[in-house]
Amino acid sequence: MTLGTMQIYRSVSEYYFDGGGVLASGKSASAFTAIANTKLFGVIPMPMIYWFALCIIISIIARRTAFGRHVYAIGSNKRASFLSTINVNRVLLLVYALSGILVALASIIEASRLGSMNSASSGSGYEMDAIAAVVIGGTSMAGGRGTILGTVFGTLTLGIINNLMNLLGVPSFLVGAIKGIIIIGALLIQRSVSKDES
């Protein structure tokens, strides 16, 4: 469903904009581009502030609320969660809604930073980066295990890997293959750790 709707929305946006994009222009353009291009105290870029603030908020939701505990429970065992009177469908709907809101915020920040948005290529491949970051950060693909702090470290690690590949002159066509190898390696490590624990 997620991948299917992604393709639908991407195709509709490409059709609507004739395969092109949108350029920030007009009276409000400077205010819009200031969202991501302003620096706090003239030093810290605002996207970093947004990122840290969202990490803290999501971490609190995940660890300190009933909703967060329900998300972990459903990820660990959906059937047991249902039998424990957790409204599984409502929690899953809220998770997807929250994910959509975060994607919308990320889109606004990226469009503000670049001053434009291309309907054909903007955000392309980000889903693999998201998967790689959470897997590197220790989130179990089987569900029920993972932390926001781990994902933060996974994101930073992935950023370092991307920069290293850029500095080493790795062809851009091979970057996706290397990320795929990293994801598979992290999954194999998770599987071996899970077997050792059991």
Helical coverage, percent range: over 70%
Estimated share of beta-strand residues: 5-15%
> Which strands sit side by side, in order, in the main sheet?
1-4
Count of strand segments: 4
Mean pLDDT: 82
What is the H/E order?
HEHEEHHHHEHHH
- What is the count of DSSP helices, taking H or I runs of 4+ residues? 9
Number of domains: 2
What does this structure look like?
It contains 9 helices and 4 strands. With 198 residues, it is mainly α. It has 2 domains: 21-122, no CATH class; 125-198, no CATH class. A two-stranded antiparallel sheet has the order 1-4. Helix 3 (46-64) crosses helix 4 (66-76), helix 4 packs across helix 6 (88-114) and helix 7 packs parallel to helix 9 (172-197).
Summary tags:
198 residues, two-stranded antiparallel ribbon, mainly alpha, 9 helices, 4 strands, 2 domains
SSE topology sketch:
Layout: H1 2-16, E1 21-23, H2 29-37, E2 39-40, E3 44-45, H3 46-64, H4 66-76, H5 78-83, H6 88-114, E4 116-118, H7 126-136, H8 148-167, H9 172-197
Antiparallel strand pairs: 1-4, 2-3
Helix pairs in contact: 2-6, 3-4, 4-6, 7-8, 7-9
Short description:
With 198 residues, the chain is mainly α.
